[in-house]
Amino acid sequence: MSLSAATRAEIETARERYPQARSAILPALWAVQHEVGHLSPDGMEEVARILHVTASEVEAVSTFYSMYFQKPHGRHEVIVCINVSCALRGADDIVAHLERSLGCESGSTTADGEFTWSSTVECLGACGGAPAMQLDHRFVENLTPESVDATLAAARASSPHATTGPGDAVGAEPAAASSGERRRGAPAGGRTRPRRRTKPEASDG
Amino acid sequence: MTQTPAAPGPDDGRVGVTIDGREVRVPKGTLVLDAATELGIHIPIYCAHAKLDPVAVCRMCLVHIEKFPKPQPACATTVAEGMVVTTNNAEVTKLREGVLEFLLVNHPLDCPVCDRGGECDLQDFTFRYGPGTSRFPITEKVHFAKALPLSQHIELDQERCILCWRCVRYYDEITGEKEIVLQQRGVQTLVTTFNGEQLKSNFQGNLPEVCPVGALTHREYRFRARPWELQRAPSVCPECSYGCNINADSRDFEIKRFASRDNPLVDDMWLCDRGRYSFPQWNTSERVRRPQLRPRGGEQRDVTAVEAISAAARELRAVVDQHGSGAVGVLGSALNTNEELWLLGRLARDVIGTPHIDHQLEPFEKLDPAEHALGIADIEECDALVVLGAEPEAEAPVLTLRLFKAERKRGARVHRLDHGADPSRIASAVRGAKTIGVIADETNRAHAARVAAAITGGAVRRLTVTRGVNGRGAKDMGVLPGLAAGYRSAPSGKHGREILEAAASGALRALLILGPNPALETAGDVLQRALARADSVVVIDSRPGVCAGAATVLIPGHAFFEKHGTVTNLEGRVQRIRPALPPATPTPTETRVLSSLAAELGARDWDRGEPSAVNRALRAALAPYAAAGNGGRATWVAEAVA
Ligand code: SF4
Ligand code: SF4
Ligand code: FES
Ligand code: FES
What we know:
The complex is a heterodimer of chains A (205) and B (642).
Chain A: H1 5-17, H2 25-36, H3 41-51, H4 55-64, E1 76-81, H5 84-88, H6 91-102, E2 108-109, E3 115-121, E4 133-135, E5 138-140, H7 145-156, E6 181-183
Helix pairs in contact in A: 1-2, 2-3, 3-4
Chain B: E1 14-19, E2 22-27, H1 32-38, E3 62-65, E4 72-73, E5 83-86, H2 90-103, H3 121-129, E6 148-149, E7 154-156, H4 166-175, E8 180-183, E9 190-193, H5 207-210, E10 216-218, E11 231-236, E12 245-251, E13 254-260, H6 273-276, E14 292-293, E15 301-302, H7 305-323, E16 328-331, H8 338-352, E17 357-358, E18 384-388, H9 391-395, H10 399-410, E19 413-417, H11 423-429, E20 435-441, H12 445-454, E21 459-465, H13 471-476, E22 483-484, E23 488-489, H14 496-505, E24 510-514, H15 525-533, E25 536-541, H16 546-549, E26 553-556, E27 565-568, E28 574-577, H17 590-600, H18 611-621, H19 623-628
Parallel strand pairs in B: 1-5, 16-17, 16-24, 18-19, 18-20, 20-21, 24-25, 25-26
Antiparallel strand pairs in B: 1-2, 3-4, 3-5, 6-7, 7-10, 8-9, 11-12, 12-13, 14-15, 14-26, 22-23, 27-28
Bound molecules: iron/sulfur cluster (2 copies) and FE2/S2 (inorganic) cluster (2 copies).
């Protein structure tokens, strides 16, 4: 496999951005994940070649962070918080509900390839809206079994996972609509801090 | 206990610290850990390693330092004037117990079946500093993969790993290959390679020594011995001329492993895999055990060593009487000790009277003292290093690590070039460097001299990578045509290949071969013809090979790990070898056999030939060897090598 020219260019741009090419491993991995959907060994080797580091280093970094996927992933990603605030507000019920409605265990992908979900994450930083989960890098808060169902249904009908990232494209409003939804990292008031992935010079809004 | 800070001393670049009530003055920048070691105070460490930069990740070395709000890692804290350190109070004890208890939470406690048991820092420190009991249930441990082969040499047990990062840093800082990494995080962290791939490095064998526990083990040593059963013989790696120091560890009269023996001037504690894993060959039972006479056309029979030596003298004398002393060819080997080679040279020139003596096949033009001026440790002082061809690093692999150290620590530039590379191009490539090292193997000596001459504007020193563990010693001892011991000029004679050719054509009638000599066996067909044609073939050898097979007089020799002696490495360092195994034959040592042979041939002033006495004699005769002593470098000056 080889990466697309656009992805390669993106990695090269990232490489130029840092005094040490090694620092560009994180953005490079994002680029690969956005293209391929996960971090394949080939993809990591290619990152290593472009950045002049070893593939072992790339893989070490990629496994340290839980938001990089080592295996092929569902079209959407759902992670459910089970930390204190959420636990107190019924996270267990949400986890049990997800298990039932998705028909697979935490850490796995639904048979139709739509969702990969996990409940092993710690505090998402959305305690104010506990219980909370994150769908494709967006928070969904104040969950109830019904709102979970609605969110999942909307996601099924939406565009693929690859359009979102930690700093997703400006203006691409989430297709999944739910009352408690806001961007990850955004204050509950709704102010957003969109970041461009590929154009670092575009400053925050 | 309250301690008082040391009174400030003179400003000599040193600072005074007090550790557990005792004062010591150490150079500025010294780590608390090293200052304590100087006082003989033990601080347990896991992540710290003498050859690696501090990372302070394991927290085993935490100590109390006055005026610091929290305990500090001794492995990463440098001393300061008046610092007062405590390593033995209740606070430190509690910290150590805590760290150990924590490390043992998921540790499998395989000690009874772990190769490392008996020399494991986790076991030892737990015993010495540990809490004795654990508050964690033994059944609910997090498990990881065990006995995972990382290569043909290395096996990984992920459960035993204490995540000290040493293996990762070894690959980072010492070889630069970065093959091993830590993946995942928290309790899931594990040591592994990219995509589970096999290690490719030529220096994997150092990993089990770097690892403080039994997580990385040698596959060749697994379950072969317990450390306390091993006999340890400090010796030298016999695989190449670099002369890495080793401990040959044996049990039940078999060498079980070669372990490194840190000599900062040579190996810096690292061995290459070729050397480290070469030990099984010394356990072979294929040995020449009995002296034998096999007269041409006669019956082969076993004799005593004394009879064999007399017969050898008789045969050689007969050839000399009939055809002259120049009809004898003498061949030593780069696997012989200096003591043996020194006697062999004297036997050939002074007793038999033949100029035809060598230890290798190729001709050797006279030594240029400049070609060994660059010592191994000096490599670190170079701004630029020129390596001609791949041979130097192929012959002496650990050289690669020293070059990398120069690159990493000093920012030296290493130019790996073709043998034939144009001297003036090389000169411009290293322009601006103040100290330059030029390294080449023996076949490229002349070109290296041209390269060195072309470089202007910096101090140039050369290093020639000789072949064979004692190839350098063989030359110093005068086992060379035309050059007697100490490179004194001698009547010119035939070099190794010419000796074989002359014997094959009938011009030489007798061969005296002191083996084992693997180089000789690369000569091919001419060796067979030479051995078959000569009237007399006297062979002193430990291995039954082509030469031993064709001997008319065969005298069993002692293998490298069965004898005492010295060998000289490529930079001229004279180092002791010691027996790790009992001799496979009751025959006297080679030095005694050579002395007896000389006596039988009429030499009067030779002593019995004990290796230690021969060593004294050769030192008395060769000033550089007297100066080198044991472990120093023998260097030749230009006038002596006229
Ligand atoms: S394998 Fe050994 S050296 Fe490597 S991190 Fe684990 S304990 Fe340390
Ligand atoms: S470099 Fe040479 S002396 Fe050192 S371990 Fe390797 S083979 Fe042995
Ligand atoms: S505890 Fe769930 S978001 Fe903080
Ligand atoms: S030895 Fe000091 S922190 Fe590990």
